[in-house]
Amino acid sequence: MRVQHGFSRRTALAASLGLSRIAAGETGIAPPERYLKPLLAELRKPWPKNRTVNIVCHGHSVPAGYFRTPVVRALDAYPHLLRAALSESYPIAVINVIVTAVGGEHSESGAQRFERDVLGKQPDVVLIDYGLNDRAIGLDRAAEAWSRMVTQLAGRGIPALLLTPTADNTTNFGDSSQSLGQHARQIRELASRQGVGLADSFAAFEQYVTSGGRLEDLLSQSNHPNRRGHELVAARVSRYFWSAESLTIG
Asked: What pTM does this model have?
């Protein structure tokens, strides 16, 4: 009975986060300062009024923590960096960051196991990160898979944070015809159309390079970020957990 009660509380909170924006007819990418505001209130509740908050990170090898394959450094990947930052900002919160990522997977495969592996974890918010690998299936198939996952979350009132891809060593940020940039734009458009959150990893990498940095500074191998690259991603994600608090990542 206690588990069922906790799930009911979580479901009610999630509905107030996501569905209220849809009901109000709001469009555009969800604003970081407001999107998760009720959830941040949960993170500030002291024992015994608090509960475990579940953050699920769904995707491919990057959130799974692969660095130079086959080496996995999950403690240097953005899910763990986010968890550590949240612990600093919300020291009385019980936070469970659950990684359901599978190396080498694209969004179609991720969508097929979404109900079992993601919704089954009773998430309060879900991060989706498949853009890097979705080049293998193309824009149309990726759009369908991402939309299916976002729709499932919306149906349960669970907020989504969509991540654009991190760059690889073939990325030319000035070339609009490159497929990685096209997938990034498609993810931004989906976030705007659905009114959900967006962590723009691709823009963070681009900003680093256009400000004078080298792309190689952010990579552990050709297609995986190193800790420095993961820190850029974690900083973009953490904007949705700021509110009146301040997070430090690095």
From this structure: 0.88
